[in-house]
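Re: beginner question about structure tokens

> Can someone show what the tokenized structure looks like for a real chain? I only ever see the sequence side.

Sure, here's an example I had lying around. Input first:
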Amino acid sequence: MADAATPVNLTRAAHVGISVSDLDASIAFYRALTGREPVAAGTMHSVPFGRAQGLPTAKLRYATINLDNALGIDLIEFQEPVGERTNGVANRPGSMHLCFRVDDFDAVYRRMKEAGYAFLGDDYTFTAGEVTPDAALGTKVAYFNDPDGTNLEIIEPRGGFAA
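And the corresponding structure tokens:
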């Protein structure tokens, strides 16, 4: 285990990688979600790259969609070895989510519902007695999944969440 007392100073994110079962379907989903086309797409077949990820090899197809803040979403379809779906639920250790910041939550939420996005539950606004600090009160969130079950969120942040 790494020494948690030794700072490494990783402070900038480059991309988030999402393993997908069908690259074409995932590109269509994230294109509709972001309004963006992939800025890069290709293939890879490499034993050393696979081993760098703890796999025996890596034969894959990928596409990258960039967001306004320079964060890339790397969609990766592993063809060898093919993995099993994680079914990551929010409370499972190791599960992650990708959060999209919006300026007008109500309009985006309504547009997504009208477009057929299935939310995991009702939208939620942070209220007094349920969250601290008080500066976060009024933050609005809603959660949904991509076609492979990747946890996604939209947020209109307030207070400490607005940074």
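Each token stands for a local structural state, so reading them left to right follows the chain. The CA atoms of residues 104 and 156 lie 7 Å apart.
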